[in-house]
Amino acid sequence: MCSTHQQKSSSTSLWKRPEAAAAEAQLHLYNSFTKKKELFVPINGNEIRWYSCGPTVYDTSHMGHARSYISFDILRRVMADYFGYDILYCMNITDIDDKIIKRARERYLIKKYKDDTTIPIEKVLEDCQLALKHVKDVRSRETDKDKQAMYDKQISTVENSLQNIAAV
């Protein structure tokens, strides 16, 4: 028996059917513009297109990243499974930007890498090829013509530099 409440055998409790809810469950969310809870109404029928910022990957993953993944996944599941919304969820994962480059410079990572004379030139070239492969992959998915041109220029510069280094 799971209950600590003991029932007298002489009295039997009558089961009562729960009353049906007057309306279907509705999702209410806090609206930061109006500063109050309001009924959530999707823009397009039952479809929700949801974008959220994700981690900026500049170091090893940590519990803060896990918390974001888990929290948003729980919200998505409740909205889909309980409220029945059709959800398209997209989380951005930032790979690199000026802030990350600045942080790397602050940590002297580039200088440490350049000054480490124990790293064979073959390893440096291999690392550069891996980085170049990543940039080419990003470029292949880019649709903006100006950004494509920027990537093409960067790729060409790195490829020329690698050829010059390899020729030495």
Automatic annotation (TrEMBL):
Gene Ontology terms: cellular component: cytoplasm
Domain of life: Eukaryota
GO molecular function: ATP binding; cysteine-tRNA ligase activity
InterPro entries: Cys-tRNA/MSH_ligase, Rossmann-like_a/b/a_fold, tRNA-synt_1_cat_dom
GO BP: any one term: cysteinyl-tRNA aminoacylation
Domain tRNA synthetases class I catalytic as annotated: residue spans: 40-112
UniProt keyword list: ATP-binding, Ligase, Nucleotide-binding
Record flagged with keyword Transferase: no
Xref: Pfam families: tRNA-synt_1e
Protein's name in the database: tRNA synthetases class I catalytic domain-containing protein
